[in-house]
Amino acid sequence: MPEIYDFSIETLDGRPLALERFRGKVLLLVNTASECGFTAQLGGLEQLYQRYREQGLEIIGFPCNQFGGQEPGDAAAIGQFCQKNFGVSFALSAKIDVNGAGAHPLWRHLATAKPGLLGSRRIKWNFTKFLVDRDGAIQARFAPQVKPASLERAIENLLRTPAR
User: Fold this and answer.
1) From the candidates 19, 36, 59, 98, which is the catalytic residue?
2) Domain with 87 in it
3) pTM over 0.90, yes/no
4) CA 107 vs CA 5, 51, 76, 150: distances in Å
5) Contact at 8 Å (CB) between 139 and 158?
6) Is residue 1 scored above 70 in pLDDT?
7) Confidence of residue 114 (pLDDT cuts 50, 70, 90)
8) Please, are residues 82 and 141 in contact by the beta-carbon 8 Å criterion?
9) What angle do CA 112, 131, 41 make, to 5 degrees?
């Protein structure tokens, strides 16, 4: 089974980004959408990032249009929306699919490594969150309705644990 650092993504501005770059960091990976009932969580994610980035937290948002067409814009529109409305400064990937035949390999890996309720490997909706420790192990999966602020304790615990 591959490890998290074996994957690469394309950033919202079209540049390749190897997750190897984040080795030794705590990662929070979230599928996002600009027109979702949970979109306000972008602000909460940015607050987490501002609070913990100096301690080693990295957040990557993955815009996805697979749930109710809630991310219809192109890269420029997504970036502008996230910056203007929520001050997002954490990394954003190019728009991806998280389910089905076209799912990004990273998201297939996340869903397989940390299944959801009743063992489901499908991502149920926007703002599903995966928390990864400093060694690249996927520690937790959080449902869309779980607010970013409620992840603080889990993030703090992982930040206190040095990489092996």
Assistant:
1) 36
2) 4-160
3) yes
4) 13, 26, 23, 23
5) yes
6) no
7) confident
8) no
9) 110
% of the chain at pLDDT higher than 70:
99
**Residue pLDDT, tens place only, 35-79:** 999 999 999 999 999 999 999 999 999 999 999 999 999 999 999
Residue whose structure tokens are 């969150």: 129
Q: List phi, psi (to 5°) of 108.
A: -65, -40
The half-sphere exposure of 154 on its side-chain side, counting CA atoms within 13 A, is 18
pLDDT of residue 27: 98
Query: Is residue 36 annotated as a catalytic residue, yes or no?
Result: yes
Kindly state the helix (H) or strand (E) to which residue 131 belongs, with its residue range: strand 129-132
Nearest CA among 50, 126, 61 for reference residue 92: 61
- Domain containing 77 — which CATH number? 3.40.30.10
Q: Give the chain's domain count.
A: 1
Residue 150: CB atoms within 10 A of its CB come to 11
How many whole angstroms separate alpha carbon 84 and alpha carbon 2? 36
